[in-house]
Amino acid sequence: MNTYGGRKVSKKWLGLLIAGLLVLSACGDTNNESGQQEENAEPETNDVAQNEEIEEAEEEQEEEVEVEESSGNEIVLGEPINVGEYEMTIQSYSLGVDYDGKDALIIEYDWVNNSDESASPFMTFMLKGFQDGVETDEVFMVDDVDLSIGQKEVRPGGSIEGAQDIVGIDDLSKPLELELDELMSFESNPYLVEIDLSTLE
């Protein structure tokens, strides 16, 4: 027997006491470890939640971009288009040939001056043709086309109808992409349409 505090303590009780202390110590360590694990787990959970939120936000942005791209500026026959301070409505397309024998797209349009100053339609916009991603050649003096209508001066609030413009065609067997944009602008925001030339006369 051992003596503890002036009392005799058997080895059995001493062993039980030490075992109890060890158990308590082990429990304390387990609690600390589980507490630390829980504390460590919380940031991981938060990180996962944050990552999910970021991914959702990125997906939403991508969807918005897709919507914007799909709902881009498109030329639709008979529908008014705002070109700066002016309104232009393309009414029809037809085919023609210039004096050099080059094929041309004839564009007929109506135009309204919504600005505060007089202006000529042909000085407010530009039309370009593209085939295979390359701008087509220019054409001049196409049969039965009167460009002078679009060169008239129009006062504020005035409008003209039946004006014409022309764009070159390099290959009649391929579609042509028509581009309409402001003639003088710091920001390019063109309207586009792909035309199947085989459907025109």
Averaged pLDDT = 81
**CATH T-level topology of the largest domain:** Immunoglobulin-like
Q: Note the run of SSEs as H and E.
A: EEHEEEEEEEE
Q: For the CA atoms, what is the radius of gyration?
A: 40 Å
- Spans where pLDDT lies below 50 across 5 or more residues: 1-9, 65-71
Q: How does the helix and strand content classify structurally?
A: alpha+beta
Put simply, the count of helices is 1
**What CATH first level of the largest domain would be assigned?**
Mainly Beta
What is the domain tally?
2
Plain-language structure description:
The protein has two domains: 2-70; 81-199, Immunoglobulin-like, CATH 2.60.40. The N and C termini lie far apart (120 Å). The strands form three sheets. The chain has a four-stranded antiparallel β-sheet, with no helix packed on it. It has a four-stranded antiparallel β-sheet with strand order 7-6-9-10, with no helix packed on it. It has 201 residues and is of the alpha+beta class. Strand 4 and strand 5 form a beta hairpin. It has one helix spanning 11-70; strands at 2-4, 7-9, 81-83, 86-97, 103-113, 125-131, 134-135, 159-168, 176-182, 191-195. The longest helix is centred in the N-terminal third of the chain and has 60 residues, at 11-70.
What's the structural blueprint in terms of helices and strands?
Blueprint: E1 2-4, E2 7-9, H1 11-70, E3 81-83, E4 86-97, E5 103-113, E6 125-131, E7 134-135, E8 159-168, E9 176-182, E10 191-195
Antiparallel strand pairs: 1-2, 3-4, 4-5, 5-8, 6-7, 6-9, 9-10
